[in-house]
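Intended use. Records like the one below are meant for learning the mapping from a protein sequence to its folded structure. Do not use them to infer anything beyond what is encoded.
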Amino acid sequence: MRFSADALLFDSDDTIVSMRLVARGAWRQWAESYGMTIQEVMSRVPVHGRPASAIIADLMPADQVAEAVQRLEGAEVADALAGNVAPVPGAVELITSLPADRWAVVTSGARRVAEARLAQLGIHPKVLITVDDTTHHKPHPEPFLLAAERLGVDPSRCVVVEDAPAGLAAGRAAGMATIALTTTHAPEELEADAAVKDLTAVSAHVLQDGHLEITAG
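Structure written out for the chain above:
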């Protein structure tokens, strides 16, 4: 499928950064520090696509949430700096093919965690929207609308690339076209304009008129 657009807005986890190496180790360390197992955490609360603070708020007493979030973020940053980061196939190649003002990263994660992970892949977004920048989080459209604003692009001229239903819903609510990656969910669970296995199936180039032509599939 082809899209005419002016910017691509990428989620981070399992869209750019493969979480197979990253998330389990940090979450396991965090869970064990509070006397839980990673299996207990994953079975008790919905995890994917949610801010860590929301997940932890479902697991911990309210007066312990802030400290617990800081502890998890510290473990995630340390994990990234240790080199436990790998890209989703095609992510680095696609992003480095784009002009810096034509893409952004929009994540439900914390800024210091996102920056640490992306930097390990040599990716340094001009625009990075994190949980620290918004009042409302995915599936609310605010994160993607803020990214479009900071890029100076009309939201209707943006294409969102996401792996999670909440992120795709946020993109649709922002009036943007959507490309789903099936890195974490089956295709039938993802409502999008196009669905691909990973970013090796997505390409983009700047046309003579200055617009992007994006191909997915």
